[in-house]
Each structure stands twice: as structure tokens, then as C-alpha cells.
Specification:
50% of the residues lie in helices and 13% in strands. By secondary structure, the chain is of the alpha/beta class. The protein binds NADP nicotinamide-adenine-dinucleotide phosphate.
Length: 295
């Protein structure tokens, strides 16, 4: 099967690397073409428009920033909808709202193609290491059909429900990430202000039972922030806002996510919007009057 990825950013690019490694017949499109060059050199066929990807490939994967980016690659004469025909599959992996994917499914139906809701668990590193988990939402037979080709991207492909459910699960999972970073930051800053140096406090927190796998790889960023964010404050806030919106619609209070959202806003106000969201530590450090120099 021919697979095409639209959106060769951090995640889409890492996924393309996996496809090329597996020897898949891989096609790609990226709005900013020069960024796609490194994949062309390794065998990816670069196409001019999202429409070309949809008309050429059996499976189209989209991995773009947000809903407005998705509209940009979906609509118009060069958009995906213009290239889809009966029998094709479109696996939409961007983190967007469940309502947006359900609306899109209605628009795809007249083309005869099948839209599948998807979401990925893991970072660029997880993709590179070959551990990515791909959640799918949609008809069982369609999910079964795409399972094997998608395993070239991530070995764990799991249908978790109907269209919209993969986005619901992704949004529900992601809200815990800033909450955990903020809770850890509170402990480290409390210890620091009471005489324990930051590195020692962090080591103790990460050596104990409170350290989740996510905290184990991300909290060390507090001592040395990566130049290039693994997942930046802006993107993290997009996901928290999706959770807050879904929670409002379904009458579920999200008290800790709401607080984390305010600290994400505060990190943005401090000029840290494009830094990894471990920068939440610095928003709290600023308020607590401890050293808030970003390292
Ligand atoms: N990074 C992670 O750890 C992670 C993990 C799980 C899920 N996600 C989700 O995956 C999605 C992509 O994340 P990412 O980290 O790969 O982001 P990214 O590196 O910023 O890449 C975003 C991609 O979207 C494209 N794009 C943005 N606006 C566009 C527009 N108006 N028209 C066409 N293309 C547009 C970009 O094209 P250009 O190159 O031209 O800008 C780029 O290919 C997001 O929804 C994110 O929440 C990310």
C-alpha cells in the first residue's frame, strides 16, 4: 500500500523516518518544502499538494499543528478532499477536538473514502525508538485494514472505539502532563526555598515513587532546558484548552488542569511560549522568588 504523510514536522517527520526505514512506498507533503528535502534524499517521493497525496496514496496520514492547519490541507482545489476517492483511507493523527474529527468524517463520506480518527502516544523520541502507540477510532473493518501498514510507523496500533474516541483519549491523557510538571515544580521550589539545592531536590523527587516515566525524562530539563522544545508551551496549552472545552461540554470539572492552564499562560507571558513545557517550573519559580534564570 502507498502511504503518504501530510505534515513533516517533529512528529510527522519522525514517522516518515520509520516508514523509510521499513522500506514502505512512502510519499509526503509539507507546506514548507525545504524541510522535506532530507526525506527525499532517503527515498520519499515529495508531492506538490495535499490533493496529490490523496490521489496517489491508498492511506493518507495527516499530522499537522491544529484545526486551522488541518483546514488548510483539507479544503480548496489543492486540498485532500479534492483528491480522495472510493476505497482510500485517511488517518487523521493531529491532536484536535473530537467534534472537529466527527465533522470532518461527514465531509469525507461523499468521496467514498474512509476517515479514521487517530492519536499517537509518545514523543519524537518514542517514534525514533520504535515504541509509538497509535490509537484508532472508527469502523472495525477499516481499522483492521490500516493496522498492518501503520505498524511500520509504530508497532502498537489499537482501536479504542468509534470516530472521535481516539481524540478524546489523547486529550484526556495529555492534561496530566503539565499537572505533573507543576506538582513536581512545587515540591522542588518548596525544598529549595528551605535550604536544599535544586539539583538535590530534583534528584530526590525523581528517585522516589512520585516520578512517572514522563517526569523522569522531562523534569531534568529544569536544570538544563533543551534548545529545541520536545513539546512546547504553546502546543501543550492547545491540548489543555481542548480538554477544558470537552470538560465544559460534558460537565466534568478539571480543577488541576485549569490551574496548569493559568501557569501555561504565565509561561507565555514570560516569553517562554516556544520552550519545552518543563518551563512551567520557571513560571512558578518567578512567583516564589527563587532563581528563575532559564538554563
Ligand atoms: N511533538 C510531540 O511530542 C507530539 C506528540 C503527540 C502528538 N502531537 C501532535 O501532533 C501534531 C503535530 O505536532 P508536531 O510536534 O509534529 O508539530 P510541528 O513540528 O510544529 O509540525 C507541524 C506541522 O504542521 C504543518 N502546518 C502547520 N500549519 C500549517 C498550515 N497552515 N498549512 C499546512 N501545514 C501546516 C507544519 O508545516 P511547516 O513545516 O510548513 O510549518 C508542520 O509540518 C500536533 O497536533 C501535536 O499536538 C505532538
Amino acid at each position: 500500500m502507498k502511504i503518504g504523510i501530510i505534515g513533516l514536522g517533529e512528529m510527522g517527520g519522525a514517522m516518515m523516518d520509520r516508514l523509510l526505514l521499513a522500506g514502505s512506498d512512502a510519499y509526503g507533503y509539507n507546506r514548507t518544502k525545504p524541510k522535506a528535502q532530507r526525506y527525499v534524499e532517503r527515498g520519499m517521493k515529495l508531492l506538490d499538494t495535499p490533493r496529490d497525496v490523496a490521489s496517489t496514496c491508498d492511506i493518507v496520514v495527516t499530522m499537522v499543528t491544529n484545526e486551522s492547519a488541518l483546514h488548510a490541507v483539507t479544503d480548496g482545489e489543492d486540498g485532500i478532499l479534492a483528491g480522495l476517492t472510493r476505497g482510500k483511507y485517511w488517518v487523521e493523527m493531529s491532536t484536535i477536538s473530537p467534534d472537529a474529527i466527527r465533522d470532518l468524517a461527514k465531509r469525507v463520506e461523499p468521496t467514498g473514502a474512509t476517515l479514521l480518527d487517530a492519536a499517537v502516544l509518545g514523543s519524537q523520541l518514542t517514534v525514533e525508538q520504535g515504541h509509538l502507540l497509535i490509537m484508532l477510532g472508527g469502523p472495525e473493518d477499516a481499522c483492521e485494514r490500516v493496522e498492518e501498514p501503520l505498524q511500520a510507523i509504530g508497532p502498537n496500533v489499537r482501536r479504542i472505539g468509534d470516530i472521535g474516541h481516539a481524540k478524546v483519549m489523547k486529550i484526556s491523557l495529555n492534561l496530566a502532563m503539565p499537572v505533573q510538571i507543576l506538582a513536581l515544580s512545587e515540591g522542588v521550589i518548596l525544598a529549595e526555598k528551605n535550604g536544599i539545592d535544586r539539583k538535590t531536590a530534583l534528584d530526590m523527587m525523581l528517585g522516589g515513587a512520585v516520578a512517572s516515566p514522563m517526569l523522569k525524562y522531562r523534569a531534568p530539563f529544569i536544570m538544563k532546558m533543551p534548545e529545541k522544545a520536545w513539546f512546547d508551551v504553546g502546543m501543550m496549552q492547545k491540548d489543555v484548552m481542548l480538554a477544558l472545552e470537552l470538560a465544559r461540554e460534558s460537565a466534568v470539572p478539571l480543577p488541576t488542569a485549569s490551574v496548569a492552564n493559568e501557569f501555561l499562560t504565565s509561561a507565555k507571558a514570560l516569553g517562554l511560549g516556544d520552550r519545552d513545557f518543563a518551563a512551567l517550573f520557571y513560571a512558578l519559580a518567578t512567583m516564589a522568588g527563587v532563581d528563575s534564570t532559564v538554563r
